[in-house]
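Collaborator request, handled under Task 6.
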Amino acid sequence: MKTIHRAQFEKIGEEGDDKLKDHTVTVLGLGSVGSQVAESLTREDFNLRLVDKGRVEAFDMGRLGIFQEEDITKFKVKQAKRRLEIINPEVKIRSFHEELNEQNIFLIESEMVIDATNQPEINELVFKHCQEKKIPLIVVRYSGSKLKLLVANKKITNKDFDWIGDVGNVTQEGVYSGLVIMLNALLMTRIFKFFLGDTLSYKISGDTWETKLKLEKL
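Structure tokens returned to the collaborator:
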């Protein structure tokens, strides 16, 4: 399958469409946000590296769009790879059923990393590695209807990283479906713009329930 619809968007055009070909993005964490952006990237012909240690859980099914009932209890990365290759057989997808640590952190290396694990310890590990290796990184934090995105396309300060902080407890607050849609849209926009030449870094925060969004350049 070859997508052709990107050129229909005037802000990308045919020249921009050529710039968006043959790139590889790593997606860490295949929860509600990670699985959705992985699907969107697959439909846009991006190659993927998927990293997640978890299994598909029944209580998550309402938020995990690419998975089906038969995937419950199975490894997320393996089932995601299977589903995504059905959507677009021409993309290259590598999957890693791994718990990230200092010994295997090299698995994330690609042209851009999306950290959707929502785990502070993993966020810090990934941030340090990407900064050291000069790999563009987007860290996503979310809970309830609140979101934060740290777009680190260059060397940034530890203080800027600390801004990502804690947005709440998903177990207690849940995840609003509108939040997942908004995050996917923001992530796809930042990924597209990076490969089209916007290599600035940003802090993006918001509350989808309150229809609030704030973007700051770093």
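The cover message to the collaborator said: "The two ends are 38 Å apart (CA to CA). The domain at 20-217 is CATH 3.40.50.720 (Rossmann fold). Please let us know whether this matches your experimental observations."
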